[in-house]
């Protein structure tokens, strides 16, 4: 298969498996999504979804959030890890949203990436999932699978995002990045990977990845 044929196979297969695509992080609006994505750095979505109801019960908008202290925010979000940095980021960005954006989450990559603790990936998720703007946020699952599928060289998430945007149609990006995440979790994880269940990698996988899988599994027999 050519690279474009492999990309088309990925899209068609994922549309069959995931005709409906749930958003992994629970939220009710752009602000709560922004906070949830910020918390998800080096933390599982399951853990974030356990913690955000506790935080949002006290503050689900920037005006209520700045009524809390950084220490109070940190105490709530501690199980998500990196709580000193994240709590300062949440408090700081909430102040900026009030001062510069009328309490609303801005609808541009540039404005979002200027907020404390908000990087390109977080901005991309918000633009995609809250505002419907085409974006392709790359997480560890997408980075791993784009390499396994021989659609990117795996050298950096920046390169993976660039390659994904080059090969997949723009109108597919917002659904596709979520479909790849779910597929990575269910069928092509980093650990406990069973190639027989991973139809996409089994069909179009990078030769070196498939050979390495066979070598590892043959040692276990």
Given as residue ranges, the uncertain stretches (5+ residues, pLDDT < 50) are none
Q: What's the total number of strands?
A: 0
Which class best fits the helix and strand makeup?
Answer: mainly alpha
What proportion of the residues form beta strands (DSSP E)?
A: under 5%
Helix content: 55-70%
Termini Cα gap: 31 Å
Mean pLDDT: 96
Succession of helices and strands: HHHHHHHHHHHHH
**How would you sum up the global shape?**
elongated
How much is the radius of gyration in Å? 19 Å
Q: What is the number of helices?
A: 13
Described by strand count, sense and barrel closure, the largest sheet is: none
What this model shows, in words?
With 221 residues, the protein is mainly α. The chain is 63% helix and 0% strand. Helix 9 packs across helix 10 (157-167). The protein starts with a helix and ends with a helix.
SSE order and pairing:
Layout: H1 3-17, H2 30-39, H3 45-58, H4 62-65, H5 70-77, H6 83-101, H7 109-113, H8 120-129, H9 140-148, H10 157-167, H11 173-186, H12 199-204, H13 207-220
Helix pairs in contact: 2-3, 2-8, 5-6, 9-10, 9-11
Keywords summarizing the entry:
mainly alpha; 221 residues; elongated; single chain
Give a brief outline of the structure.
This protein has 221 residues and is mainly α.
């Amino acid at each position: 298969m050519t690279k474009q044929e492999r990309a088309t196979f990925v899209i068609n297969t994922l549309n069959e498996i995931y005709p409906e695509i749930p958003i992994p992080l629970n939220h009710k609006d752009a602000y709560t999504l922004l906070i949830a994505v910020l918390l998800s750095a080096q933390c599982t979505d399951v853990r974030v979804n356990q913690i955000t109801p506790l935080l949002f019960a006290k503050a689900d908008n920037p005006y209520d959030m700045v009524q809390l202290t950084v220490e109070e925010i940190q105490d709530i979000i501690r199980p998500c890890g990196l709580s000193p940095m994240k709590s300062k980021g949440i408090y700081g960005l909430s102040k900026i949203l009030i001062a510069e954006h009328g309490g609303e989450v801005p609808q541009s990559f540039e404005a979002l990436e200027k907020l404390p603790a908000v990087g390109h990936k977080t901005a991309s998720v918000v633009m995609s999932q809250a505002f419907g703007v085409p974006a392709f946020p790359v997480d560890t699952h997408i980075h791993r699978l784009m390499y396994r599928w021989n659609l990117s060289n795996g050298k950096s998430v920046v390169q993976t995002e660039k390659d994904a945007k080059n090969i997949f149609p723009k109108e597919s990006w917002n659904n596709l990045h979520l479909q790849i995440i779910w597929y990575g979790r269910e069928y092509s994880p980093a650990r406990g990977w069973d190639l027989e269940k991973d139809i996409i990698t089994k069909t179009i996988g990078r030769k070196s990845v498939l050979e390495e899988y066979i070598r590892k599994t043959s040692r276990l027999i």
